[in-house]
Design goal:
With 191 residues, this protein is α/β, with parallel strands linked by helices. The chain has one domain: Rossmann fold. The protein contains 5 helices and 6 strands; from the N terminus they run αβαβββαβαβα. The strands form 2 sheets. The chain has a 4-stranded parallel beta sheet, with helices on both faces. A two-stranded antiparallel ribbon has the order 3-4. Helix 1 packs across helix 2 and helix 3 runs parallel beside helix 4. The radius of gyration is 16 Å and the shape is globular.
Length: 191
C-alpha cells in the first residue's frame, strides 16, 4: 500500500498544481488532471519496485483526492481494475450568498465530471454522505449522472448522515463499518 501526497500538500514539496482559478469561473477539469498526473507518477514509480504487483492497483481518493481519482479514471490506466472516490470534488465549502456553505460553481463540477466520463472505462465507486458539507447529495448525483451519461462506469453509493460532517467519513475510524461493505462489494465485482 502506498499513501502518496500530491504536489503542494503536506510535506510533499513542490508547488500546488491543482489550482482551479476563481470560484466564479473555475477550471475544475484541468485541476483534476493535475492531481491525476501525480497519481500516475506514483503508480509508475511503485510499479518499478520489485515488491509491487504491477497489474493489480486500486486507486482510492478522498475530497480533492477523490476528484483527482475521477480525473485519473479518464486516462484508463492499465493494471488498474477499479477506483474508489470518497466525497470527490473541488470548490466546496465556500461561503455562499446568505452565509451558507456550499460549492461556488456546482455546474462546472458536473460538466467536468461529464468530460472525464467521456473517456473513462474503468469501474469507479462514488461514495458520498448525506450531510457532506462540501458536496451535497443532489450535486453528487448530478456529477455521477453526467459521468455515466458520457460513457463512464460509475457506481453511486450514497450513505446516510455521518457525524457532524459526512465529508469526514472516509478518514474516520467510526466510518469504516459504513463504507467497508460498499467497497468490499465493489471489489468483488471487479475482474
Amino acid at each position: 500500500m502506498a499513501l502518496p501526497l500530491r504536489r503542494g500538500y503536506g510535506e510533499s514539496g513542490g508547488h500546488w498544481a491543482e489550482s482551479y482559478g476563481k470560484c466564479d469561473s473555475p477550471d475544475y477539469y484541468n485541476a483534476g488532471l493535475q492531481g491525476a498526473a501525480d497519481i500516475k507518477a506514483t503508480i509508475d514509480y511503485m510499479r518499478s519496485q520489485p515488491y509491487v504487483a504491477p497489474d493489480n492497483t486500486l486507486v482510492v481518493g478522498q475530497s480533492a483526492g477523490g476528484w483527482a481519482t475521477i480525473a485519473f479514471s479518464s486516462l484508463n490506466p492499465p493494471g488498474v481494475p477499479g477506483m474508489v472516490n470518497f466525497a470527490g470534488g473541488r470548490g466546496g465549502h465556500q461561503k455562499l450568498p446568505g452565509g451558507v456553505l456550499g460549492n461556488c460553481t456546482p455546474e462546472a463540477l458536473v460538466q467536468a465530471a461529464g468530460k472525464y466520463g467521456a473517456t473513462a472505462r474503468v469501474p469507479l465507486l462514488w461514495i458520498y454522505a448525506e450531510n457532506d458539507s462540501f458536496f451535497e447529495p443532489s450535486l453528487a448525483k448530478r456529477m455521477v449522472a453526467a459521468y455515466d451519461a458520457a460513457g463512464g462506469k460509475g457506481t453511486y453509493k450514497p450513505v446516510g448522515a455521518f457525524g457532524r460532517d459526512g465529508h469526514l467519513l472516509a478518514g474516520s475510524e467510526s466510518g469504516g463499518p459504513i463504507w467497508q461493505p460498499l467497497v468490499a462489494n465493489f471489489l468483488s465485482g471487479l475482474k
